[in-house]
Design a protein that fits this description.
The protein is mainly α. It has one domain: Nucleotidyltransferases  domain 2 (Four Helix Bundle (Hemerythrin (Met), subunit A), Up-down Bundle). The protein is built from six helices and no strands. Helix 1 runs antiparallel to helix 2 and helix 1 packs antiparallel against helix 6 (about 100-120). The protein starts with a helix and ends with a helix.
Length: about 120
């Protein structure tokens, strides 16, 4: 979870400094690592990079509500196209991502992290 929180801080710095594509990617990474922290604590293998898919692996009583799941779905869309210039029809990622988008995805990451921290607080170490 510590790395998830650190990635979230990185996202906020990138937002502040105008690296919006990296802010979006770091927000996705933060949420991914938070979900993996929960799965790790539960003794489960955590494979892949999709936040939504990782959340689906949570045992039934710990599955997220629709709001957290939809936040994860949007975060997942930032995993590849934020980093590769040949993914978009035209333009490099740094020209295509905005402060509003980065801010929204950081909010989504905060939502996923808070959800995951809540689960971790209920699980015995």
């Amino acid at each position: 979870m510590g790395q998830a929180e650190r990635d979230l801080e990185h996202a906020k710095r990138d937002l502040r400094d105008g690296f919006y594509e990296w802010a979006c990617f770091s927000a996705q990474q933060a949420a991914e690592k938070a979900a993996k922290a929960v799965l790790s604590r539960l003794g489960a293998e955590a494979f892949g990079h999709s936040v939504a898919s990782l959340l689906e692996e949570f045992p039934e009583p710990n599955r997220p509500g629709r709001d957290v799941y939809e936040a994860a779905l949007e975060l997942d869309k930032a995993y590849v196209p934020t980093r590769y210039p040949n993914v978009h029809p035209s333009g490099a990622p740094y020209k295509l991502y905005t402060a509003n988008e980065a801010s929204r995805l950081i909010g989504h990451a905060e939502k996923v992290i808070a959800f995951c921290k809540g689960i971790l607080s209920e699980i015995q170490p």
